[in-house]
Amino acid sequence: MTLLEDLQFRGLVNQSTDEKGLAELLESESVKLYCGFDPSGDSLHIGHLLTIIMLRRFQLAGHKPVALVGGATGLIGDPSGKKAERTLNEREVVQHFSDKIRGQLERHLDFTGENKATLVNNYDWIGQLSVIDFLRDVGKHFGVNYMLAKDSVESRIKDGISFTEFSYQILQSFDFYHLNKEAGVKLQIGGSDQWGNITAGLELIRRMNGQEEGEKPKAFGFTIPLVTKSDGTKFGKTEGNAIWLDEEKTSPYEFYQFLLNTEDSDVVKFLKYFTFLNEKEISELEVEVAERAHERAAQKRLAEELTTFVHGAEALQSAQNISAALFGKGDLKELTGKEIKEGFKEVPSYDVHEEEILLVDLLVAAGISPSKRQAREDITNGAVYVNGDRHQDLEKMVAAEDKLDGQFTIVRRGKKKFFLINWAQA
Ligand SMILES: N[C@@H](Cc1ccc(O)cc1)C(=O)O
After folding, report:
1. CATH class, 237-340 region
2. pLDDT score of 347 more than 60
């Protein structure tokens, strides 16, 4: 299978310029391709992951990915796919975001070997551009009508768009021209909302090179589809929060659980999009979904592959330990302090300042049982677990031997109400 055939199989081809020409090019040489990431936040999210993985796919097929950090374009703001004008971030903030994004790209791409990835920042060339040069040398090639007809602009005319965001497409076009001329980049890829900016860049390359319309193109554009879910809700969010690649913002455990919870109706598509499993492996998992959906083999594989890709094998192991301890046969007492913190981030917690405390008193103080009477009843009924062990003794003291990692005790009431007890350092 050629790279493009593989991408077709995965459903990853949204739009492409001159598909036949591109197919020929990709089969005949090692092609430099780029994708840009604007620093509009301090982390990339799971939506960006698809384009990062795309760069990897090209790289594995022998091509050379260039990841661009939009140090300059991030100061302007891409109107593509946005319903309203953005507020500009301070320069220092964009600088800080750029550093973060660059670090993430460095983690997820491969910078070794013959067709190693490279990183660039468009501030390095756009930052130098004088307004006179920009308007004379670049702006002259853009017709205002052409610019107005782009979706990103057209959809905003009614509610208003600043000259700043209106001009964004010229900057991204200039990047493509610059990278084509200076580094031999022949292909730009991006999400489906980037089609307008990418084709504007191709037009600029053609004009700057004095080519006629219809002449053999010097460069190509390619977009991947927007990730959609069968239930119509937005992909990449849980309870309104985005799934970030930064482990401080979304822990590997949360990331793992997010993928594990993929619907049966989406999981095969996501395996195709996000993993490097081949056609045969994917169709085997497809059979699993159809015949033994409750075992969630496909979801497990998806979660494993992606957690490893983003956070590494050790983090996957941790995420699985936490999941087992919380939902399965795992042992809470085997968890490290870090794993406990990750796994119990969302459960109610309570700080104890004493060295030890009577279990009955703890249940009341921490609000686990509503009254002392109820607390006694809960214990004698066998509804109370300390670190996974049931305790029915009303005299039970929670003390040193119940402190996990010297710091935590996990109390459970009933089937799945967890509470985290923090032993405050004396
Ligand atoms: N406009 C792209 C990012 C980008 C920036 C500069 C480029 O040259 C290319 C792409 C986005 O918002 O996702």
Report:
1. mainly alpha
2. yes
